[in-house]
Design a protein that fits this description.
heterodimer, A: five-stranded antiparallel beta sheet, globular, B: 7 strands, 40% helix
Chain lengths: 1003, 162
């Protein structure tokens, strides 16, 4: 077979195909193969597979080999099974049978092979078959040592894969005593098993602590020759020591003083040995010794209770920071990172700052520099923040591309957290953008704007600094964004200086305009309209720009629309209205820094969290208040389930008629509207009701978990994507979602799904697909039950899965004759049911029809849009002759369509169809909420109505909005600026609603 | 004696990786040919192939002055180069780096003894024996046996059965 390795790929394939054909014919031949040949050919197949070719036969022959009495044949059989495992149920049964025989054979070699096979495959079927058997083998008095080793790890594998199938029992206490076993190999294997079991059941295994301590003590105090086979380059049993130290990290410091004293002695001995002259110059010696040392330091940090040991550990790591071995420098930096979070050693860690900064500058290996950045971040506090941030910034200029974004995030966080002086903060962030603009994510520049807006003492400085930074001939687009936003808000603060007069500010920004991407240009257009308000003297200049063909006829809808709307707004609105609409942004609600959230997501659960948590205790947050729980941030980032169209959900309902909230509009056809308008009620029943008419959204949310749904249905089939989001920074373990159908439902509804990965990392989202088939009609909905382990606790959540019969409805076209013909055929008495109830709300067929249509408007095509508009025209005609409530409702529907259409490319159509009647109606209705809605629509209204009408409407509006009282007025402005700035939507009353959520909320 | 917290968390809220273990062991030559792949986690074939390629790309660009550890996805690769072969072990980021680095060396010394100056071709043609050696020393993603004497004794015993 040596020919297989050389020559060309084609020659290899040709040769292999020939060989495969040969083997196939041997297996199919009439002559029964003897064991030796069978082994030879199975082995050849394995070889071919390992070369990277597919093998689709030979499984049966391999299974046959398992029952051979010859070791070599059995071994090849088991190897084939382990490498080419196939969940073919037929074979699994045969394989399990062979394993069972071998386990019972009392032949240690065969038992070993069988155990290794189970450990390598570890499937659920095997766990079912052997999870009860293996503990017996493990603790039986007459089992050979090598078999015990294999049994311990085999059991560990089964326990990890299917913990539910491994029965706890008497054996557990006997397993703990394996720590005392004579044979160190058995102890090595058993320690791994015990560690894993102890992590899950600490109480049950707590006797392992004293046993582990005494075992460890015997090892570290032994002379280097005592342990013979287990001494590795003069280090006694290094791997076992490491494992024992890991096991001890499952528990707090021992409470028994004797045990505790003995452990402290061990740890001191290990620290002392590090100072002794090496017994060998070989790197293996020092590596093995230091492996134990680092694990001991981990345990010291874990216990975090002996200041003396912590400081000694820190000094030891300090020595390693300057060691000539790169590995040790790397590990010292890494270990010190965790040490920095202990209050006992934080100060000691800080003394090494110069060494660490030096490492950042001189290390050749990027992973070492990365560790140095991490450590600087961990050791940063108010006393050294300026130095560390400056060093990180200067390192950023030459940093590897792979770690730039992370450094940017870290700098941004540190600068914010430890800013005493906010001018320093602003300078730092602008420097960040200058040095590494491409790596400055949205979160970073959003955050600087949030902070500048929330702190008036820094606004003037920020405006001046961005203005200066923008003077650079080439500046990063992110700077243009920050600059545009800040000058739009606070440009007036520097307008007194003739060097930064309004016109100069505008020209400066506009000189960057053409080099920017569409979102930035859109943002700049908003800045311009804000300038119109701030600086009446540049109004005509800006109007000229807006009026130019490159804006008004821009190919991009968003830009075109902004240009049109702003131009109209600037020309028709009075200065008072402009001032109201374009007022300065309100302060952002305080919340966890979005940057921190991003860093957590990037770095995974462990590293960031503990640092952050530790820091939170020590430092006062930038806002002078304790940081709010992270849950608030994630809650705000998901669109509120009841977020209604105009952001008015929190407002009191209109005095007459049904609630004007458009959010309730859809649901109230089916149920009472109260639940639908309730702000953010995550009760699963409420959520369930919302899904009756929609297919996508958030089904469930609590502190830990968010469940989102996306589904589609066609005829009797459906598919649902369930997204499980881990909102914490800690892994979920044993994550098992199960779909439960009641017995009678099972027959009517077919649900198929695949199991998801049992671990969900912190911040991660996993997806599960459910294929649905509706067999017959049903009433109950299936239940989704989710169980998982978070930290040490077991979580259990059940929600009703919104699969309802109406998802499978299909419209049928039918002439009225046909219909009545069928209707009359229904003559049996039980086929007719009638019940009369009092309606809660006035009913109007046309409105209902429109609502239903609108419910599907997410995928509104040209055709259905026309249909919808036609319906509404009829509706309008109807509404104008009916009393108020239906008209109000009609208005809501209209405003919704216009809103929808305004953001799409078909906006023009809706605009032209927008009836003047609506405007007139609103003017006469004196309903402030309606008026605000109109104000939102104002730009597109004004585009279609004459100047005069629009102007008087606007005037009318200003009276209306002022009657709303404080806190509501800037809703109108929010809608204009909020949509344009592209900033994250902030929650809270009077919040801005960006266009994106507006469209989503109508789905 | 221990009546403290019932959860394996430290005072800093840090949770140790519950599945601290080897994810896979790879032996590759400089050209990227896999000489041994032992998986301790479920991956499908495409994923395995991708991992093999990525590990090769990550490891071969590093020079001798670099550390023997390199972060890889959410894991860490501990590797050491012997002549033209890279021995790589993929573990959790929180695992003991040096212990696995020496576990590699221990494994290589056993191979060297067993095959009498092991070379790449030994691994190719005696692949089934290499798997036996691995299973003797590492099982279920854990270190099973560290004594070279004991492993070699067992291997010679098995060889005598052939």
């Amino acid at each position: 077979m040596s020919g297989l390795c050389g020559k060309s790929k084609e020659a290899e394939i040709k040769r292999i195909n020939k060989e495969l054909a040969n083997i196939r014919s041997k297996f199919k031949g009439d002559k029964a193969l003897d064991g030796y040949s069978k082994k030879k050919y199975v082995c050849k197949l394995l070889f071919i597979f390992l070369l990277g070719h597919d093998i689709d036969f030979g499984h049966m022959e391999a299974v046959n080999l398992l029952s051979s009495n010859r070791y070599t044949e059995k071994q090849i059989g088991y190897l084939f099974i382990s490498v080419l495992v196939n969940s073919n149920s037929e074979l699994i049964r045969l394989i399990n049978n062979a394993i069972k025989n071998d386990l019972a054979s009392r032949n240690p070699t065969f038992m070993g092979l069988a155990l290794h096979c189970i450990a390598n495959v570890g499937s659920r079927e095997m766990a079912e078959a052997f999870a009860g058997e293996i503990p017996k083998i493990l603790v039986a008095g007459d089992t050979m040592d090598s078999v015990k080793q294999s049994a311990a790890l085999c059991l560990l594998r089964l326990y990890r894969a299917s913990p539910d199938l491994v029965p706890m029992g008497d054996w557990t206490s006997r397993v703990v005593h394996l720590l005392n076993d004579q044979h160190l190999g058995v102890v090595t294997a058993a320690t791994s098993l015990i560690t894993t079991l102890a992590q899950k059941n600490p109480e049950e295994f707590k006797t392992s602590v004293s046993l582990a301590v005494s075992r460890l003590s015997r090892i570290v105090t032994s002379a280097s020759t005592d342990l013979q086979d287990y001494t590795y380059y003069f280090v006694p049993a290094p791997w076992l020591s490491v494992k024992l130290l890991r096991l001890l990290q499952c528990y707090p410091p021992p409470e028994d003083p004797a045990v505790r004293g003995r452990l402290t002695e061990c740890l001191e001995t290990i620290l002392n040995k590090a100072q002794e002259p090496p017994k060998s110059k070989k790197v293996q010696h020092s590596n093995a010794k230091n492996a134990v040392l680092f694990e001991a330091i981990s345990l010291i940090i874990h216990h975090d209770s002996e200041p003396n040991l912590l400081v000694r550990a820190c000094n030891q790591l300090g020595q390693f920071l300057q060691h000539r071995e790169t590995n040790l420098r790397y590990l010292a930096l890494e270990s010190m990172c965790t040490l920095a979070s202990s209050e006992f050693s934080h100060e000691a860690v800080k003394t090494h700052i110069d060494t660490v900064i030096n490492a950042l500058k001189t290390e050749r290996d990027v992973s070492v520099r990365q560790r140095a950045v991490d450590l600087l971040y961990a050791m940063c506090d108010r006393s050294n923040a300026q130095q560390i941030v400056a060093e990180m910034l200067s390192y950023l200029e030459t940093a590897d591309y792979s770690i730039r974004e992370e450094i940017v995030l870290k700098v941004a966080i540190l600068a914010e957290k430890y800013a005493v002086d906010y001018t320093w903060y602003v300078d730092t962030i602008l420097n960040l953008i200058r040095i590494a603009g491409d790596y400055v994510s949205e979160e970073v520049w959003y955050r600087v704007i949030q902070i500048v807006i929330n702190r008036d003492d820094v606004q003037g400085y920020a405006a001046k600094t961005v203005f200066e930074a923008l003077q650079a001939p080439a500046c990063h687009e992110n700077l243009v964004k920050v600059g545009g936003y800040i000058l739009g808000e606070f440009g007036n603060l520097i307008a007194g200086d003739p060097r930064s007069s309004p016109l100069i500010q505008f020209d400066l920004l506009h000189s960057k305009f053409h080099l920017c991407s569409v979102p930035t240009r859109a943002l700049l257009l908003s800045t311009y309209i804000k300038f119109v308000n701030l600086f009446p003297e540049v109004k005509t200049t800006i109007q000229d720009v807006l009026r130019s063909d490159s804006q008004l006829k821009n190919a991009d809808v968003e830009l075109q629309q902004r240009a049109v709307e702003y131009l109209r707004l600037s020309s028709v609105a009075s200065t008072d209205i402009l001032a109201t609409v374009l007022e300065e942004m309100p302060p952002f609600p305080e919340r966890e820094s979005s940057i921190l959230a991003k860093l957590k997501k990037k770095k995974g659960p462990s590293t960031v969290t503990d640092l952050e948590e530790a820091k939170r205790e020590r430092s006062v947050d930038v806002n002078g208040a304790p940081e709010p729980a992270p849950a608030s941030a994630s809650a705000a980032s998901t669109p509120s389930p009841s977020a209604d169209l105009l952001g008015l959900g929190a407002a009191p309902p209109a005095p007459t008629g049904p609630p004007p909230s458009a959010g309730g509009l859809l649901v109230d056809v089916f149920s009472d509207s109260a639940s639908a308008v309730a702000p953010l009620a995550p009760g699963s029943e409420d959520n369930f009701a919302r899904f009756v008419c929609k297919n996508n959204g958030v089904l469930f949310e609590n502190q830990l978990l968010q469940i989102g749904l996306k589904s589609e249905f066609r005829q009797n089939l459906g598919r649902m994507f369930i997204f499980y989001g881990n909102k914490t920074s800690t892994q979920f373990l044993n994550f098992t979602p199960t779909l439960i159908c009641a017995d009678d439902l099972q027959a009517n509804l077919n649900l198929q799904t695949k199991p998801v990965d049992p671990t969900v990392d912190g911040g991660a989202q996993v997806q599960q697909v459910v294929n649905i088939e509706c067999v017959s009609d049903f009433t109950e909905a299936p239940v989704l039950n989710i169980q998982f382990r978070y930290g040490g606790t077991f979580q259990n959540v059940s929600v009703k899965l919104p699969i309802t019969l109406n998802k499978f409805f299909q419209p049928t076209e039918m002439a009225s004759q046909d219909f009545f013909q069928r209707w009359k055929q229904l003559s049996n008495p039980q086929q007719e049911v009638q019940s009369i109830f009092k309606a809660k709300h006035p009913m109007d067929t046309e409105i209902t029809k429109a609502k239903l249509l609108l419910g599907r408007s997410s995928d509104l095509g040209q055709h259905s849009l026309k249909k919808l508009i036609l319906t509404l025209q009829t509706l309008w005609a109807l509404a104008s002759s009916t009393p108020k409530p239906p008209r109000l409702d009609a208005c809501c529907v209209w405003s919704r369509i216009c809103k929808l259409r305004c953001t799409g490319s078909r906006c023009a159509q809706a605009r032209t169809l927008f009836p003047r009647g609506y405007v007139t109606y609103c003017r006469s209705s004196f309903n402030p909420m309606q008026a605000v809605g109109l104000c939102v629509l104002f730009p597109c209204v004004s585009a279609t109505l004459g100047d005069h009408t629009a102007h008087s409407t606007m005037e009318h509006l200003s009276t209306c909005t002022s009657s709303l009282g404080p806190g509501r007025g800037w809703d109108t402005k929010g809608l204009l600026t909020g949509t344009t700035a592209g900033l994250p939507v902030q929650g809270g009353p009077g919040s801005m609603k960006s266009r994106q959520p507006v469209v989503q909320s109508t789905n | 004696m221990v009546t403290g917290r019932a959860t394996p968390e430290t005072s800093r809220g840090r949770v140790h990786a519950q599945t601290a273990k080897i994810r896979f062991i790879l032996i590759q030559n400089r050209a990227g040919k896999t000489r041994l792949a032992k998986w301790y986690m479920q991956f499908d074939d495409d994923e395995k192939q991708k991992l093999i390629e990525e590990v090769h790309a990550v490891v071969t660009v590093r020079d001798a002055k670099h550390t023997n550890f390199v972060e890889f996805r959410n894991f860490k690769i501990i590797y050491r180069r012997y002549a033209g072969l890279y021995f790589c072990i993929c573990v959790d980021v929180s695992d003991n780096n040096l212990a696995y680095l020496e576990a590699i060396h221990n494994f290589v010394e056993v191979l060297n003894e067993y095959f009498h100056n092991v070379c790449e071709l030994d691994l190719v043609f005696n692949f089934y024996k290499v798997y036996t050696v691995v299973d003797e020393m590492f099982l279920a993603g854990e270190i099973r046996e560290t004594s070279q004497t004991k492993v070699l004794k067992q291997l010679l015993m098995l060889q005598s059965l052939e």
